[in-house]
């Protein structure tokens, strides 16, 4: 083991030196981290099982142009590999190959192709996947079809679902389509296998809890409406009959027992990803810090007359300036009435006037996403009605933070949000009955955060140390609501990212002011962005 550790450390050093020479970031997660995550998954896998993790497919943006490629979070977590057209196999027990050699993982990757790389970028290929990522048994993707391994002989074949919308590229004999076909054949996937049902079962295994049960049952009924295979799926039928946590536990156990299984894979990988290692916490602190600084900068820069797109651009410029590669999700910038649309993404309003602007924007740094929301008056001053709603949301958030420690049931966070918001809305005269709170607070207050903005993890459990979650109460009062018109078109969400500790939480997004007085004070500071103007076009 000591020799293996020395080898991994040496490889990590070589990788760091190479990145520095190429002027690339040097703070990526190390091969040792990814190897440790594979070992952690292997330890959780049932006997005589194999986990199969595919790269994400590429997606067409326009005609012959693809969207910027986003790697599969699971594959990245377990390997550090960020390219398409690849599949990783992790075996519970060592396997014996040709000549008596043993292996416990196989990695099939994109083949090097200088002509293609000139157009679409460098590929690691077999040799660099070995030298930079620390793998031993690496092969070109074209070798999977004839590789001597019988996956159908395993008791459990764990995978994250088989996409049914991947098209075959005739010019590439080892694209994702070909890898999927080879896997189906080797794994003995039944002809009546339904990818949609399997993916839905995997989602339910992650999300199912008493709190979300009614919403999830509605989702399943919608999915089954026009899908005969889903209507005849016994596990989905069992889920629809769930009434309490005991029923949900029985459903999850049955879903996990299936041989070709994305549900069990989701439960196992989710149990790992939901608890952040020290290395991951370093990434989380960076991505949340970048996002918070961007929000603070835009609080300084915002003025009446700016556009939603301009505010989005300012936030994302700061992300890039500070090293983030992407946003963690489509940026939301909603002025006035648009702030009452939960996932408003058009950001098309050309003049936000003197309204409140809700900005839900988070950076993605080396694969890890932040999720921060601030609601800011363009004038730098909240109106009395805006301040009353804003301060109520702030009060709810402040009441939730003390619960964010190990041992608190996850569902208790939203219960607290509902209690505070309901009482406050009654006092303001916006509602008469506490039960009406859902009119203006239609979502939950927290979700997991990490490699996905809605990261993997069970919700029917208590909080544990080193989970990272959001705390995001909100109130949205669109025009036409059954209350005084003075409240109409006020939408407020305050969203922060916290690390769960043993006795209290660690507020990661502290660099973006939250109190209404502090938001107004930040607006008085000068931003260099305000000095940027477009000169007359000749």
Output the keywords:
globular; disordered N terminus; 3-stranded antiparallel sheet; alpha+beta; about 550 residues
The counted number of beta strands is 19
Shape: globular
Helix content: 25-40%
What about the largest sheet? Answer: 6 strands, mixed
Note the gap between the termini: 69 Å
Q: What low-confidence regions span 5 or more consecutive residues with pLDDT below 50?
A: 1-15
Task: Name the average pLDDT.
Answer: 92
Oligomer: single chain
Q: What's the tally of helices?
A: 17
Proportion of residues in β-strands: 5-15%
Strand order of the largest sheet: 6-5-4-1-7-8
Element layout with pairings:
Layout: H1 2-21, H2 31-44, E1 49-54, E2 60-62, E3 65-66, H3 73-79, E4 87-96, E5 102-109, H4 114-120, H5 125-133, E6 138-140, E7 156-159, H6 176-187, H7 195-207, H8 213-224, H9 228-231, H10 234-240, H11 245-256, E8 260-261, H12 262-273, H13 278-301, H14 308-321, E9 326-327, E10 332-335, E11 356-360, E12 363-365, E13 368-369, E14 373-377, H15 384-400, H16 410-428, E15 468-471, E16 474-477, E17 490-493, E18 496-500, E19 505-507, H17 516-523
Helix pairs in contact: 2-3, 7-12, 13-14, 13-17, 15-16
């Amino acid at each position: 083991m000591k020799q293996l550790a020395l080898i991994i450390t040496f490889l990590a050093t070589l990788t760091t030196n190479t990145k520095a020479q190429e002027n690339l970031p040097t703070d990526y997660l190390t091969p040792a981290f990814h190897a440790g995550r594979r070992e952690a998954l292997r330890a959780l896998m049932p006997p005589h099982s194999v986990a199969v993790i595919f790269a994400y497919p590429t997606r067409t943006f326009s005609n012959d142009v693809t969207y910027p490629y986003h790697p599969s979070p699971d594959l990245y977590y377990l390997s550090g590999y960020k390219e398409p057209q690849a599949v990783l196999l992790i075996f519970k027990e060592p396997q014996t190959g040709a000549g008596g050699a043993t292996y416990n993982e196989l990695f099939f990757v994109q083949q090097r192709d200088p002509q293609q790389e000139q157009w679409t970028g460098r590929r690691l290929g077999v040799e660099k996947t070995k030298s930079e990522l620390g793998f031993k048994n690496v092969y070109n993707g074209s070798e999977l079809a004839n590789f001597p391994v019988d996956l159908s002989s395993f008791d459990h074949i764990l995978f994250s679902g088989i996409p049914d919308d991947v098209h075959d590229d005739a010019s590439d004999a080892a694209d994702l389509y070909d890898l999927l076909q080879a896997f189906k054949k080797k794994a003995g996937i039944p002809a009546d296998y339904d990818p949609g049902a399997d993916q839905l079962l995997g989602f339910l295994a992650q999300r199912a809890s008493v709190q979300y049960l009614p919403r999830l049952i509605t989702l399943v009924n919608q999915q089954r409406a026009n899908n005969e295979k889903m209507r005849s799926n016994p596990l989905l039928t069992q889920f629809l009959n769930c009434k309490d946590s005991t029923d949900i536990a029985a459903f999850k156990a049955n879903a996990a027992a299936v041989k070709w299984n994305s549900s069990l894979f989701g439960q196992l990988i989710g149990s790992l990803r939901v608890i952040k290692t020290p290395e991951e916490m370093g990434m989380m602190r960076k991505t949340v810090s970048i996002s918070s600084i961007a929000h603070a900068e835009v609080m300084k820069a915002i003025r009446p007359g700016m556009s939603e797109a301009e505010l989005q651009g300012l936030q994302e410029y700061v992300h890039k300036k500070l090293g983030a590669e992407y946003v963690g999700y489509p940026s939301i910038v909603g002025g006035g009435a648009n702030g009452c649309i939960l996932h408003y993404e058009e950001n098309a309003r050309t003049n936000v006037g003197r309204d409140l602007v809700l900005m839900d924007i988070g950076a993605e740094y080396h694969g890890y996403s932040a999720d921060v929301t601030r609601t800011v008056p363009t004038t730098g001053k909240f109106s009395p009605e805006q301040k009353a709603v804003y301060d109520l949301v702030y009060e709810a958030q402040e009441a939730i933070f003390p619960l964010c420690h190990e041992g608190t049931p996850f569902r208790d966070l939203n219960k607290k949000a509902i209690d505070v918001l309901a009482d406050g809305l009654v006092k303001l005269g916006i509602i008469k009955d506490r039960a009406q709170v859902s009119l203006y607070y239609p979502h939950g207050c927290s979700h997991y955060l990490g490699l996905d903005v809605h990261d993997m993890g069970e919700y029917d459990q208590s909080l544990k140390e080193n989970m990272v979650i959001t705390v995001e109460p909100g109130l949205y009062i669109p025009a036409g609501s059954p209350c005084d018109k003075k409240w109409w078109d006020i939408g407020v969400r305050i969203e922060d990212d916290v690390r769960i500790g043993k006795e209290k939480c660690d507020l990661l997004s502290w660099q973006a002011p939250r109190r209404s007085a502090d938001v107004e004070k930040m607006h008085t500071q000068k931003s260099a962005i305000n000095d940027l103007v477009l000169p007359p076009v000749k």
